[in-house]
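hey all, quick one before standup. I had two proteins in the batch that finished overnight and I want to keep them in one place so we stop losing track of which output belongs to which input. First protein below, input sequence then structure tokens straight from the run.
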Amino acid sequence: MLKTCPELAVKLEAIKVLKSQLNQELSNLPPSGKLEDLVMLEKIKEKLGSELKDLQNEAWFGLPEFSEEYFENQYDIQRDILIENGLLKFLSTGEFGIHAIDGLEYPMPTLEQVKEGLLKNRELLKTKIKQGFVELVMVPFGLPAALLDKVYREKVVKINEKKELLATDKQRIELKDEFFTDHDTRYLEGDSEGFLFYHPQNFFEGNNPDKAKPELLATQAWQALLFKNSSEFPYTGQVVFGRKEFEIGKNPIEYLKQLQTDPQYQGEQGLTPESWLTYALSNLEQKNQIVDNYYGYHLLDCYFVIQNQLYTPGYYQAQLYWNHPATNNPNFSVRTAVKVI
């Protein structure tokens, strides 16, 4: 049973009343078989059915671009993508899930669990949905980041061999050698080796209580995130329902402060290699389209510590990028997502 706010509970109760009313009306109709009685029956069913659908939609989010049916389909797509790419396995419990870097099994959150996460923060998420965060991505955070990277790269190559690979502008592109140039997968092993840390409050060395992945798995082996439905980031400062898109050229320290303090970004978080790669794989599977091929993204929800130096990662094309957090890059911005669970 989904947990609901009082307002939502009232609406759900109204739905029950409508169902009872429909049943009562049907039981009062004489079984005459006359045409006028059948017409009346159809009108009653149509009227009450329409009201029932409207109430159900309002009790969900009341937004046509984010119907309950749409969301359920998004969940099914995510599950199928993870199965198709060998990331989702049958566990010993008979559930679908992952074998994480700590050697334990973690089942994929059920549809009902994800819905419950949505409705817990219904009013905030309703605003974020209006701002364009409508694409569900189920992130198997507990898997090795290097594995997600390998699966994504192999899928890019496979689609390119079929000559079906599309750029962010939806034009056919031919994969070039530089697409993977300077891609150093050693840093993706930081989640397993203990030098990649998550959920920073700042990027000042020695001033972060952040944790490595094994410490987070008990409560965060999976993430359900809402992304904006965009393969390339809108870096022009466009305003959508009171939210201004991030512009290019700032450094990670500035972006993180903006994300933490500006009310228009409430409920949003930066990305990790795991969430960026899962989003990129999802986009590739559904559209044959890569993401971020001309510009890059700082990943604000993690950092590396290498030889006692703190660095922030980013992604450009399919290359892992890293730099000092105070360094400005004129071709980089930040992509965010909204946490559901």
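OK second protein, same deal, sequence then tokens:
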Amino acid sequence: MFEVLLIMLVAVQLKAQNHVLVALDNFEQEIGDTIDVPLSIATSGLLVATYRVDIVYDQSVLEVLSYQGQSPWLVFGNIEDAGIVRLAGLNLNGQHTNFIGATLQFEVIGLPGQLSYLDIYVERVTDRNNQDLLHDYSNGQVAINCSDLIHIGNPQFQHIDKGVF
């Protein structure tokens, strides 16, 4: 009986695999603010050598200005397509500790009360042998603050009055 229990425990541990978590934070900003949005990557102790992600945002609320990687990561990106940022990161040695994959810089251009989701689409995360790693994601958002505006009864801000914020 003890041997069967031991085998079952080992099998359960083998099935419990670590995941890499790719995440963005939530922000509340003012119109005209420039914000730095870090793309956080939690490795769960796995050796991450590459990642490829797309981040979709509402271009009526945000304008992407730039992206920047952090050494020793080489980060390649495309910010030319409207409403989407495409990023790929490479670290030849790999990294098993949590890190910032890139920092995106946006300008807030929308109206008070508007919201832009920052939706992450993880295309791939690999180790140094180009083996895919299991991954999860956590989307972020940017809300435009409207607390300093008188908007009660103004039809332009009706969605706010109904409890969106």
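Flagging for whoever picks this up: Residues 2-15 form the longest helix (14 residues). The domain at 18-129+137-146 is CATH 2.60.40.680 (Immunoglobulin-like).
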